[in-house]
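Example for tutorial group B:
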């Protein structure tokens, strides 16, 4: 319960936001060739460039390939393009480290902070400290419930969940009473709640009508992929080895689940969802082991955060408000947070090419001996 975020608010305001967002997407579209997963920053790492300092803290490495593979290089590039000097660190799932990194950045004189927190409480504590020093804070990807940050940049996360629910239903097709296991994200990550809420808009009516049968739904602390796999295995064996569909909240969890399915000779026979359009997830889709993923073009997220940071570093809140034209509701803090909410895309085997065409993942990262035939058929090269 609790995290009813975005549902109504942002959708109503989307029309108003369209103009600003269009601009943003147009800008995002331009730089896509050079984006790549592991892009080097223009100035090279450690290059202080003389710009205004901005501190960025990412939450984990192991929960998803996105943080180090996409967010870090893309934020670095986008912040430098705004003339800023980024210090980008990863808290490795450790709240204490998150807090210590923030203290270091605050005392080193950063002018803006961008944080993707492990938990709302940890993120809020950092934002309070920064704001006490007059440093504006942007919540990046994950909203800190009950927080004090000035802006929020993310995707429409309920929509991400709805796409996962739709993908699952589409993949299962007509199989009355098909059995579903749900492996969800971290209970401390508001996004995991939003993904779940979005999934349930599609799945709950099916569970209620008996079209689908829910075996069990389980949240996974810190999105730990390995724990996700062992948890799934316990549920599967507890259900006599029967499952038709698995809601895996992201590609990392999906990968661990596919490993377990393979152990029981079930991979390729069970519909598995995902998220993040990682190289591993896309390759699993091409092999037929995973049914879908959700593509969130992180370059757009990084560029929106960088534009906001650039404006805030100059104290230009009017310009920042011109970027963050949407709002999300923080039900815990009982406030609306000015936001940028980008559009996620459903990807199945037929549309994997959209992700390679966008330059987000290279064909060479997903086309291998096992997937070569699919790559050929789909024109992925
Ligand atoms: C992000 C997902 C990611 C997950 C685990 C969520 O907050 O939105 O993209 O897969 O965290 O890192």
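The residue assignment follows.
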């Amino acid at each position: 319960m609790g995290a009813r975020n975005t549902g109504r608010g942002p959708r109503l305001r989307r029309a108003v936001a369209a103009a600003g967002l269009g601009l943003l997407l147009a800008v995002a579209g331009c730089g896509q060739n050079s984006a790549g997963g592991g892009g080097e920053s223009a100035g090279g790492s450690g290059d202080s460039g003389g710009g205004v300092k901005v501190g960025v803290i990412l939450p984990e490495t192991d929960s998803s390939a996105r943080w180090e593979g996409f967010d870090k290089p893309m934020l670095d590039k986008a912040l430098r393009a705004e003339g800023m000097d980024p210090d980008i660190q990863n808290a490795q799932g450790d709240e204490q480290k998150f807090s210590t990194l923030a203290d270091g950045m605050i005392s080193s004189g950063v002018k803006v902070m961008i944080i993707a927190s492990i938990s709302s409480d940890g993120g809020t504590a950092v934002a309070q400290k920064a704001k006490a020093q007059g440093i504006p804070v942007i919540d990046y990807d994950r909203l800190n419930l009950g927080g004090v940050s000035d802006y929020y940049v993310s995707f429409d996360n309920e929509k991400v969940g709805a796409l996962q629910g739709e993908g699952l239903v589409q993949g299962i097709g007509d199989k009355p009473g098909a059995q579903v296991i749900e492996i969800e994200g971290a209970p401390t990550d508001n996004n995991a709640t939003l993904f779940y809420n979005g999934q349930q808009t599609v799945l709950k009516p099916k569970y209620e009508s008996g079209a689908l049968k829910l075996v069990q739904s389980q949240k996974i602390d810190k999105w730990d992929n390995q724990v996700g796999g062992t948890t799934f295995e316990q549920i599967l064996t507890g259900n006599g080895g029967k499952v038709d569909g698995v809601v895996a909240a992201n590609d990392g969890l999906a990968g661990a689940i596919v490993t377990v399915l393979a152990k029981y000779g079930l991979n390729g026979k069970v519909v598995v969802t995902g998220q993040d359009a990682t190289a591993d997830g896309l390759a699993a889709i091409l092999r037929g082991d995973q049914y879908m993923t959700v593509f969130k073009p992180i370059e757009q997220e990084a560029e929106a955060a960088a534009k906001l940071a650039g404006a805030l570093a100059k104290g230009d809140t009017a310009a920042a408000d011109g970027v963050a034209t949407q709002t999300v509701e923080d039900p815990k803090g009982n406030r609306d947070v000015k936001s940028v909410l980008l559009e996620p895309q459903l990807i199945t085997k037929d549309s994997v090419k959209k992700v390679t065409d966008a330059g987000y993942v290279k064909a060479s990262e997903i086309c291998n001996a096992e997937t070569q035939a699919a790559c050929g058929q789909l024109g992925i090269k």
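Residues 1-46 have pLDDT under 50 and may be disordered. Compare this with the pattern of hydrophobic and polar residues in the output above.
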